[in-house]
Amino acid sequence: MFLRTVCLFVVACGVAAPAARADDWFPHPANARWTYFWSDGDYNPQGTIENVNVTSPDAECGGWQLEWSGTIEVPHGSSGSSSGIGPATAQPDDGEMCFEDQDYGLVNTDWSGDAPPVNEPPLCASSGSVCPNSLGSVLYDVIWGSRNPTISEPMLQGTSWTATGGGAGNVTSQNQYLGLRKVTVPAFPEGIVTAAVRSEIVLAGTPGDDYGSGTRTTYWGYGVGPVKVAFDHVDGSVTIAELIATNQVAKQPRPDADYFPMTVGLEGTYKWSNTKYLKQPEVEQLDVAASASRSARITARSISGPMRVAGDYVFSLRLDGLRNTYGSTEAATLVKFPKLGHGRHFFTPVDLMTYGFNPVLPAYPVPGTTWHSGNPRDTQVYGVKGTTTVIGVRTVRVPAGKFSALEVRSTLTQKGFRFGSGTRTMWFAPNRGLVKLVFDHRDGSVSTVQLIKK
Q: Are residues 240 and 124 located together in one domain of the fold?
């Protein structure tokens, strides 16, 4: 018997794109205020206090807007050397900047401000026109080389992304989330737990290449925003910015474990069976074949057992959770499973894992988190009603080893189809993904999936 099922979720079976949403790595209520002190050993040695506040939580630029003000004391005769400290010229450090909260992170959309310190190396290729590039403020340092996105979310272990910046998009960056780090700054003398992001930044084609390139580490406080920036420039100068006061209150960051890694080359071998219909286990291999922009393509293929299966799936991870956006499976089998509604089939562990409704997992899985079916597209695809709950972290033993895994339980009802109804429990291990699945079908059979080789 030869069966084939194809579902193109993006076009025919998908979930409507979520609206842009805010997140607390950079909160922006109407009254939000921050005060920073920043300095550069070569180009702003005396340092500058900047006052930053939200001017519009819903700006014309499409997102929300900040403005800042300060004064830079530029040493006379300085040409990039701190030895030029002496009588100084006061130069205004004022500007405004616009951001958007997207479902994949924070995006900088626009900025304007005063010229950078007159002694700062030029960051544009031509001096014949106004140069929009500057490293003459805290926020300019934050977005330098990483405007889209400035923060990639959800912020989970292993998160990395590429971005560009500058007025002409000629500043590039490779960004890596380093994990949660406690730092001490004047605004939080007892310390604050932050998300540390390291950026390797490259500027090419301008006289200021060596100043515009380097390694920047930004520390983001949950519920606060950026609390510290350290930029080690290639030319040897160092820019440091620290938060000295704010009316924002720090919050406990959400768990950053990655329970569904999208790393190319990650593979696992699974054994799955059903007590009534698949007593001879089916063994299949899953591989992350491609990954980009927080989306991944996962392939499935038979290793042994009564089926010959080939599957292709696409997942995306955004702030609204992990979603299956495409699925195509093809199987030659003599196994006679009960019929499911809406043309569904169980041929691979991925079919069992994604069955019902999206998301498969929330972006930040916290015990007690619950979500329900009801999206019209999911109803059209699966015809399933139900509820999913994050239970908590449990120790799970499978042939591949012992894991401390996140337990997620769903109650699923596909009207008129007992095999498509029941209770499904799944266990996901950090940096590994699915390690076990048990589906207690309402017809009395039980499907079990286990990771047997990683």
A: yes
Say how far apart CA 312 and CA 301 lie, in whole Å.
9
Residue type at 216?
Answer: R
pLDDT, tens digit (0-9, with 9 covering 90-100), for 42-99: 999 999 999 999 998 776 777 899 999 999 988 865 544 444 445 678 999 999 999 9
pTM, whole model, 2 decimals?
A: 0.91
**What is the spatial distance between Cα 183 and Cα 195, in angstroms, rounded to a whole number?**
10
Cα separations in angstroms, 247 against 23, 29, 131, 183: 17, 11, 34, 18
Rg of the Cα atoms in the chain = 26
List the CATH number of the domain containing 311.
2.50.20
Q: Tokens at residue 254, please? A: 């959400």
β partners of residue 292 = 295
pLDDT digits (tens, 9 = 90+) for 343-401: 999 999 999 999 999 999 999 999 999 999 998 989 999 999 999 999 999 999 999 99
CA–CA distance, 419 with 422 (Å, rounded to integer): 8
Domain containing residue 188: 33-246
